[in-house]
Amino acid sequence: MAFLWLALCLTPACCLLHKDEDPEPPIKNLRMQPETRRLTWDLSGNVSEISCFINSRLITKAVDKPYCQFRVLPTCQVTNFTVASTGDPPFSAGILYPRPEGHPEAAAQRLGCWVHDVDFLTCSWEAGRAAPGDVQYRLYWQDLKTYEEEECPRYGVDDRGTHIRCHFDDVSRLREHVQFLVKGTSRGARIPCSDLTVELARIERLSLPNITGMCNKSYSIMEWKMSSHFNHRFTYELEIQKGSDPAYTEKAPGSYFVLPNPGNYAVRLRAHARFRQTWSEWSAVRRFGLGSFQEEKLRTQTRAEGRPECDLGKDTHFRDWLTSALIPLGALLALGLGVALCRRYSVLHKLFPPIPHLKDPISDNLHSSKLVAWEASRASREDCQVAEVQVLGET
């Protein structure tokens, strides 16, 4: 018995246990195709569903195809792409893209861009903490559809002459979705790039217009106009303060607002673009109205500042505005009335045509169509006295 236990203990484990070979993975040769923005693989088994993840976040699923399609790929930041199947047993595999190169902290840091003053775009960044002293950065914007790149036309520099800012003067030619790349160069080191993909409508700092308007003792009409290349639908909020009363807010769905009994008041405006979470900054305060009790000096100063002056005693501005509006309206009404009358006369003429003139049977045989009525009470032709007139000569 002891001999059997001794033989059992001396027998190699490989001879006691049967080792199964590892099954072939269902997904092999995982690779990225930048030109098509596809994460592709080879299938070697029957897999029902494959999901694709970026940094552990589900992005899309591959249905009956050996790839996942992405709208945008990171150009500079190293990202973990993973595919996972739900078969039995489950399987997952991943790759890093793009491949890391150079010291990560030598790349440009805190890259940010914003649209401002309607037509302009500015991007800024900081030199990396591990960047060498001779590092130089250059910014490019890239079209996500055509991969076309264009370098920044105008840079701003720091004390060492390193580019840390870029200005674009015309954003109207840019697409709504743009990728910005900051590439670094150095003589003795490889500098990784930095990238930022943005929707320009979401990074626009709205430029608020000046409020204009007309007013009288009854009400004030305020108007304004927004300008933007990427945002087109807005809602507005006005903060109004009448005299020394506390300020209050009013919503305005359109680009105008009517304020009854305005008196002297101050107003400012802010806007909210569709699909944005935050409001813009408040505009500059605009003041309307001057009472007759104020001094002429203050009135002169207000005119010099361009402040609208409401006539609180007369409705001159309103009458001018009303007259300018009624004149074209009256002309249109007169034109419409003339057209209506012409059409009506034409219709009546067709419905009731004139009766033809009856011919007189007697006058048809005479040279003249005029008839003289005979009255019996008058004297006969013989009773008429006839005087002869003799012409002696021409005078």
From TrEMBL:
Membrane-topology descriptor: Single-pass type I membrane protein
Residues annotated as domain Type I cytokine receptor cytokine-binding: 111-203
Signal peptide: 1-15
Limits of the IL-3 receptor alpha chain N-terminal domain: 27-98
Key words, A-Z: Glycoprotein, Membrane, Receptor, Signal, Transmembrane, Transmembrane helix
Chief localisation class: membrane
Keyword Membrane included in the entry's annotation: yes
PROSITE patterns from the UniProt entry: HEMATOPO_REC_S_F2
Compartment(s): Membrane
Source organism superkingdom: Eukaryota
Pfam families registered for this protein in UniProt: IL3Ra_N, IL6Ra-bind
Name of protein: Interleukin 3 receptor subunit alpha
Organism, as annotated: Felis catus
